[in-house]
Write a structure and sequence with these properties.
heterodimer, A: about 375 residues, alpha/beta, TIM Barrel, 14 helices, about 40% helix, B: alpha/beta, seven-stranded parallel beta sheet, 17 strands, about 15% strand
Chain lengths: ~375, ~400
């Protein structure tokens, strides 16, 4: 990288609206690396290689490498028990009641989904309110500094944390369909929870605003099938605007993770002053064209943009190359080139390296 | 028995001479053009062409030799089949013809945009075989007044006269049962006007807006169907109404919401059809709709299609046992999600034979695979499907 800015400097320059001096290639390789290492399918040349070695070999920058926000419950008792192969039950025992969720781990124990959500009825929301109000958030400076030292100039520190109140209800706590029905049947209880959850988030945002990291990600996993314009405008947008205002005043840059369907909310995205959109997925994997993403984002930074399927052997490499060229032509310098949203475990790592070489050759 | 008599006997729950068969009588009982081209090639049928009469689903018009070969008893009355043809290439590059009034333009990425009066309303990406709907005219509406101001459109006199001529021709020159492709959906109409996701959220969170849309659709359906039946009602035996109420996992919405919001509209609309004519009401609704079927029957539906037996709650034996005497099942004969495209011919034959044994007894059954035969389905499997039908279709004495 002699004569060029470091990846960290390029990353910061992009969000400051400066010329980064080249295309920043920042794919997320963690899941691919972890799965292939665990199942013994890492290519021979990566035998013994660390994740950072993999990033270096692919001429790639690292996006997520530190999670300095820590949380603990002051008085709520939590416990876990295995209730079946790969199925872990978690309990939150509070003076107002107990919540239980069951998560199901994948074959490699690297990801999980809910078999059973912790909030079953709108009445359970009162217990969830107790739990989130009982939480104490802190900033782990030691871990943060260690992570920065470990990764060095490979990327600028940024991370995601818990989702906004309604999106959290949809994805983590209650499930989408039960949450929508609860909004219809017992809207007062749900909206009361949303207010309590938003207030409980103050502690997180206070820490973020005081922290040194300049870039923050809203890891929302927005999908227009779940978050159509009414939901976005009525519930998400007011929350986002308030938090964006807070973070912008503290000098932070904020991007939001939209990795699902986008078309119905293309007109909504620009109504919130995000600095970037992460994981927007064009056709053939997503439901929008690259041009539609470009139009919807305006001056925002696009993070990622290459459909993950282009890293599978079923797609010709020429399609990947053409996609990379078009993304650069349309978005640079407001671009952090990456994969929407990760290379799958069976993806071809040679193609990741190929993109790294393409952007390196561009200078 | 002639085809027309056979179909009506089945719908009237009398035993016809054999189970009637539908292949291509409407837009969810046919075959994608690429599968149809494969089939014709496999059978050595060189005459005719590949006529794409439903561009959105890339459906082929099923021609006479194929209808005859499989003993099909139903033909569509559909503007798509009488609008003239123009050259077209299927997504796999093969030559075909497409309805002449279909407008499209390249998307610049190997796919196509569908146009309506110059506006892009659909999109078929390069890797897809379908046009997805991309334009929802009431997507931004926030009030009943905006809904009220929107013109849903009506059949034109010219279209009705063309349909009337074609219906008369089919009635007088063929023995086929004639299916009028009307449409007239409610839930699906709302989803088309607002966007699928937005309309579902409307139902949950903005019921007045959802109701305003649905009642406008009802008014429009009633107005249109009066004129439609006046033009073709004396020739057709069935009128196809829509649309989808289910998903793979069950009803799209709470059954009680169906009963409070949608079923009264169906009752009003289908009741109007019955008051105006002797035409049988044919409902196409995909998905798992077991909990809704009593309401569908009560609302005046005579025929249910496609009987998606792979969806939750749609076990054929239970459907036949619980509802078989009150409604005609038109479909369910062969699973098109797994068995028909991916099974062996022997598996297809056994599967279809078993389905015939379940659905056939007592009439009230028209054979059809579940929804359209998809591109890539092996012709050998289609042949095996109809072999099983023919080996099992006779009622005897």
């Amino acid at each position: 990288m002699a004569g060029r800015r470091s990846f960290r400097e390029m990353n910061l320059a992009i969000f400051r609206g400066e010329d980064p001096g080249g295309v920043l290639w920042q794919p997320r390789l963690e899941f691919w690396y972890d799965v292939n290492r665990k199942r013994g399918t890492l290519p021979e040349r990566y035998a013994g290689a660390s994740l950072l070695d993999l990033y270096d070999d692919c001429l790639a920058s690292v996006r997520y490498f530190t999670w300095p926000l820590k949380v603990r419950q002051r008085s709520v008792r939590t416990r876990e028990e295995w209730v079946g192969p790969k199925r872990l039950a978690r309990y939150w025992e509070t003076p107002v009641g107990t919540l239980r969720e069951v998560v199901h781990y994948d074959e490699w124990d690297l990801s999980s989904y809910q078999d059973e959500y912790k909030v079953k009825t709108a009445d359970d929301l009162a217990i969830l309110e107790y739990i989130i109000q009982d939480q104490e958030w802190s900033w782990d400076q030691t871990t943060y500094e260690a992570d920065l030292a470990r990764v060095g100039e490979r990327g600028a520190p940024q991370f995601y944390f818990r989702r906004s109140p309604l999106q959290g209800l949809f994805i983590e706590h209650m499930g989408f369909q039960p949450a929508i029905y609860a909004l219809h049947d017992e809207r007062d209880k749900v909206e009361h929870y949303l207010e309590v959850a938003a207030a409980a988030d103050d502690a997180i945002y206070d820490l973020l605003c005081q922290g040194a990291e300049p870039i923050v990600n809203f890891g929302e996993n927005i999908d227009a099938h779940m978050d159509p314009p009414t939901i976005w405008r009525q519930y998400h947008a007011p929350y986002y605007r308030r938090r964006l205002d807070q973070l912008h005043q503290a000098g932070k840059h904020v991007h939001i993770h939209i990795d699902g369907a986008m078309r119905p909310i293309l007109g909504c995205i620009g109504e919130c002053p995000f600095d970037g959109v992460e994981a927007a997925t064009p056709e053939p994997q997503g439901d929008v064209t690259i041009e539609q993403i470009r139009q919807a984002l305006g001056d925002m930074v696009l993070l990622d943009g290459i459909p993950a399927v282009y890293f599978l052997p079923t797609y010709p490499v020429e399609m990947l190359i053409e996609c990379v060229q078009r993304l650069i032509a349309l978005f640079y310098p407001r671009l952090v080139l990456g994969i929407s949203d990760e290379i799958p475990p069976d993806g071809l790592i040679e193609r990741v390296k190929l993109v790294g070489e393409m952007v390196a050759d561009m200078g | 028995m002639k085809s027309r008599e056979r179909v009506l006997a089945a719908i009237n729950h009398q035993k016809p001479d054999r189970v009637p068969v539908d292949l291509g009588g409407m837009r969810s009982t046919g075959m994608m053009a690429m599968a149809y081209a494969d089939l014709k090639q496999h059978l050595g049928v060189c005459e005719g062409a590949i006529y794409v009469f439903d561009p959105g689903q890339q459906l082929a018009l099923i021609e006479e030799p194929i209808l005859q070969r499989y003993g099909a008893d139903v033909v569509p009355l559909d503007l798509g089949t009488i609008s003239g043809w123009k050259p077209y290439r299927l997504p796999d590059g093969r030559e075909a013809l497409i309805r002449a009034d279909f407008e499209m333009e390249p998307d610049g990425e190997g796919g196509w945009f569908q146009l309506d009066g110059g506006r892009r309303v659909g999109h078929m990406p390069a890797s897809s075989y379908y046009f997805d709907s991309t334009y929802h005219p009431l997507a931004e509406a926030t009030s009943a007044a905006e809904v009220d101001a929107y013109d849903l459109g009506e059949w034109t006199d010219a279209d009705l006269r063309r349909l009337e001529r074609e219906a008369k021709r089919l009635y007088e020159e063929t023995d086929y049962a004639i299916m009028g492709g009307f449409g007239g959906a409610f839930l699906e109409a709302g989803q088309g006007l607002r966007g699928w996701d937005q309309f579902m959220v409307d139902i949950a969170l903005d019921r007045p807006l959802a109701e305003a849309i649905l009642h406008k659709v009802l008014d429009n359906n009633r107005r249109n169907v009066r004129r439609y039946l006046d033009a073709v009602g004396r020739y057709i035996q069935l009128i196809q109404v829509g649309g989808d109420l289910g998903t793979q996992a069950g009803p799209q919405l709470r059954p009680e919401w169906y009963y409070e919001l949608l079923q009264p509209l169906e009752k009003a609309f289908w009741g109007e059809i019955h008051r105006l004519s002797d035409v049988k009401v044919f409902l196409h609704s995909c998905g798992g709709i077991y909990e809704l079927i009593p309401g569908i029957i009560d609302a005046g539906c005579d025929v249910l299609n496609p009987v998606q037996t792979s969806a939750v709650g749609m076990e054929p034996e239970r459907l036949k046992r619980e509802f078989g005497e009150r409604i005609t099942f038109w479909g369910g004969g062969c699973d098109t999600q797994s068995v028909l495209p991916f099974g062996t011919p022997e598996q297809v034959y056994d599967h279809v034979s078993q389905r015939m044994r379940v659905f056939k007894p007592g009439g009230g059954y028209v054979f059809c695979q579940v929804h359209n035969i998809q591109a890539g389905t092996p012709p050998e499997n289609i042949e095996a499907m109809y072999r099983a039908v023919h080996d099992n279709w006779a009622y005897g004495d």
